[in-house]
Automatic annotation (TrEMBL), chain A:
Coiled coil segments of this chain: none
Predominant place of localization: nucleus
GO cellular component: nucleus
Taxonomic superkingdom: Eukaryota
Organism phylogeny: Eukaryota, Viridiplantae, Streptophyta, Embryophyta, Tracheophyta
Organism: Eruca vesicaria subsp. sativa (Garden rocket)
Localisation: Nucleus
Protein name in the entry: MADS-box domain-containing protein
TrEMBL record, chain B:
GO cellular component: nucleus
Gene3D superfamilies given in the database record: Transcription factor, MADS-box
Residue stretches of biased makeup (Basic and acidic residues): 273-292
Source species, domain of life: Eukaryota
Region (Disordered): 270-292
Single Gene Ontology MF annotation: DNA binding
Subcellular location: Nucleus
Pfam families documented for this protein: SRF-TF (PF00319)
Protein's name in the database: MADS-box domain-containing protein
Keywords of this entry: DNA-binding, Nucleus, Transcription, Transcription regulation
Xref: SUPFAM superfamilies: SRF-like
Domain MADS-box span(s) in chain numbering: 18-78
Length: 212, 292
């Protein structure tokens, strides 16, 4: 059963706050102990609050003294390199979280574009119905897919040593054809399209031959 | 084919991680596991400390030494202050927090804002992950066996790969065509209206003074996924739009369509983007739109 998600906000209700404090303090000390034991490392915890008459120290004041001594013996740079406070800690988590979020969104977008591509190929939708804003994303995915297919053809052509040279030529011509760049000038663009078309016609002609 | 299916089944049944397992409270034996455990648990401990401070307003400091001897610390207000407080623990001076009344405990404002932001990010991530699952599920459910090209490319033979390659290339051209239709294309000042296809631009072409040049150029940037300033086409191509009747599966994209389009393009050699007013060094360099 999932428990209720706690809002990361200061608890206004004093008694609720106090009881939360007691439980969580107990939990932190337990986790600190486990970390120290499982990994065999020195750990020290200090908690200061209005809910306790004196500061809470773990493992014990003596042991904490040792930890602090060890800590202070380190050069300042080593001490501060991984030192965090609430502000820096939260900043770190926000940064990492945002990176992960952006990565996931990008991945989702790619998946959606792939769907659109496959739907176009199978005739389920018409390219003219692709949302304007998706056109660039779509063409990126298409380019990606073309690269994968090209690589596949190169691999197969290499392995398929026994196959006829015509089929090989067709494959390598397609592979060698430059993929049309969106940024090229319009005449160059058209020239390239015409070139590709001619090659395609050639490929079609070749594939019509009985290659075996 | 069958081998693939077997492997898939195995992958689905195998657990990704060992899950919740009861562990002995003794120092771990496996060196690399110990490192991983240290990393994860230290991270979790700091998270708990941050939460304790946010929720209850308690001051806290944690100092941890790594198996390699490096030190990690977390502290609110900061580690040094807390260490000093600890060192003075036996001093007659009362501890600041112990004399505070519960009602006086106040959270820092930045703490609230940042936690809000963090919560938002975490929620959005969860939503994005669910969406990812949805998309994948949808793909799995709508997969049809006759659409062999939707399978992994590794399963294609040479002929199939070539066939699909051609179809995808054709699709690419059509998509590029669609993209160009969505650009605001207006003629270069030197454009001569002479051919019949120039009729489309007879009113001097539609010149939109509000058009953002940089947005247009950015359209060619292959990394741009979303462009808010795209204007709808204000002209129709002379041979109309191809439309696909529901259920009609084209064998190949209509190459005649592209042929006519190419001829049309050739006649309008002077098409270009108006780039007046933008100094050379300020022009966006990625993927220049055609201009003469």
């Amino acid at each position: 059963m999932t428990r209720q998600k706690v809002k990361m906000v200061f608890i206004e209700n004093e008694s609720a706050r106090k009881s939360t404090y007691k439980k969580r303090k107990r939990g932190i000390l337990k986790k600190a102990k486990e970390l120290a034991t499982l990994c065999g490392v020195p750990v020290g915890v200090i908690i200061d609050s209005p809910y306790d008459s004196s500061m809470e120290v773990w493992p014990s004041r003596v042991d904490m003294d040792d930890v602090v001594s060890q800590w202070q013996r380190l050069p300042e740079m080593d001490r501060t390199k991984k030192m965090l406070n609430q502000k820096t800690y939260l900043e770190q988590r926000i940064t990492k979280g945002t990176e992960a979020l952006n990565k996931q969104n990008k991945e989702n977008k790619e998946l959606e574009m792939k769907e659109i591509m496959f739907d176009c190929l199978s005739g389920k939708i018409a390219p003219s119905s692709i949302d304007r804003n998706d056109l660039v994303g779509c063409s990126n995915v298409i380019d990606q897919y073309l690269r994968i297919l090209k690589r596949r053809m190169e691999i197969l052509s290499k392995n398929d040593g026994a196959s006829s040279s015509s089929a090989h030529a067709a494959a390598t011509t397609s592979a060698a054809m430059p993929i049309v760049e969106m940024g090229s000038s319009s005449t160059a663009f058209c020239d390239m399209i015409r070139q590709q078309q001619m090659q395609n016609n050639l490929n079609h002609a070749v594939m019509d031959l009985d290659l075996d | 084919m069958e081998e693939n299916m077997e492997r898939n089944m195995e992958r689905n049944m195998k657990r990704k991680s060992r899950g919740r397992q009861k562990i002995e409270m003794v120092k771990m034996k496996n060196e690399s596991n110990l490192q991983v455990t240290f990393s994860k648990r230290r991270s979790g401990l700091f998270k708990k400390a941050s939460e304790l401070n946010t929720l209850c307003g308690a001051d806290i400091a944690i100092i941890v030494f790594s198996p390699g001897g490096k030190v990690y610390s977390f502290g609110h207000p900061n580690v040094d202050t807390m260490v000093n407080r600890f060192k003075n623990i036996n001093q007659p001076f009362p501890n600041p927090n112990n004399n505070m009344r519960l009602s006086e405990v106040q959270p820092h404002t930045f703490n609230l804002q940042m936690n809000d932001v963090l919560t938002q990010v975490m929620n959005d991530t969860e939503i994005a992950k669910k969406k990812s699952e949805e998309i994948r599920k949808k793909r799995k459910n709508s997969k049809r066996p006759e659409n062999w090209w939707e399978n992994p490319v590794e399963e294609f033979d040479l002929a199939q790969t070539q066939e699909i390659f051609v179809k995808v290339e054709n699709l690419k051209k059509v998509v590029a065509d669609e993209a160009s239709k969505n650009f605001q294309v207006f003629p270069h000042p030197n454009f001569c209206v002479g051919s019949s296809s120039g009729a489309l631009f007879r009113d001097g072409g539609y010149i939109n003074p509000n058009l953002d040049q940089y947005e247009q150029r950015r359209m060619f940037n292959v990394n741009a996924y979303y462009n808010q300033n795209m204007y709808p086409p204000i002209y129709q191509l002379p041979y109309g739009n191809n439309s696909y009747a529901g259920g009609y599966v084209p064998d190949q994209y209509n190459l005649n369509f592209m042929h006519a389009f190419n001829q049309y393009q050739n006649q309008n050699q002077n098409l270009g983007f108006k780039d007046e007013g933008i100094p050379e060094n300020e022009r966006h360099q990625d993927g220049h739109p055609p201009h003469f």
